[in-house]
Amino acid sequence: MNDIYELAPSMRLLIAMHNISSVDPTSAMSLDDLKIASGMSDPELQSAIRELLSYGYVESKGTAYYLSRLGICIIRSVYT
């Protein structure tokens, strides 16, 4: 049975990125850093990044990632 309160991997990653302040190009984090911060496996992380990029919640700077303004708004809605 699944826990109804379990967060989707993409939401867990979004929260982790917010918690480590990866919120602009100067604070963008590599996949290795995000893997450590989120505790996700490589396949789970890759899938979550692809999903968040497709929604526009995350942007990339080379091989590093950070929350977009839209992603920050999504996080704010979780906490308010």
Give structural notes.
The protein has 4 helices and 3 strands, in the order αβααββα. It has one domain (9-79): Arc Repressor Mutant, subunit A (Orthogonal Bundle), CATH 1.10.10. The chain has 80 residues and is α+β, with helices and mostly antiparallel strands. The longest helix has 14 residues, at 42-55. The chain starts with 8 loop residues before the first helix and ends with a helix. The chain is globular, with a radius of gyration of 12 Å. Strands 1-3-2 form a 3-stranded antiparallel beta sheet. A hairpin with a 2-residue loop joins strand 2 (58-61) and strand 3. It has helices spanning 9-19, 31-38, 42-55, 69-79, and strands at 29-30, 58-61, 64-67.
Task: Provide the low-confidence segments as ranges.
Answer: none
Number of domains: 1
Cα distance spanning the termini: 29 Å
Instruction: Provide the CATH architecture.
Output: Orthogonal Bundle
What's the rounded overall pLDDT mean?
Answer: 92
CATH superfamily: Winged helix-like DNA-binding domain superfamily/Winged helix DNA-binding domain
Strand order of the largest sheet: 1-3-2
Strand/helix succession: HEHHEEH
> Share of helix among residues?
55-70%
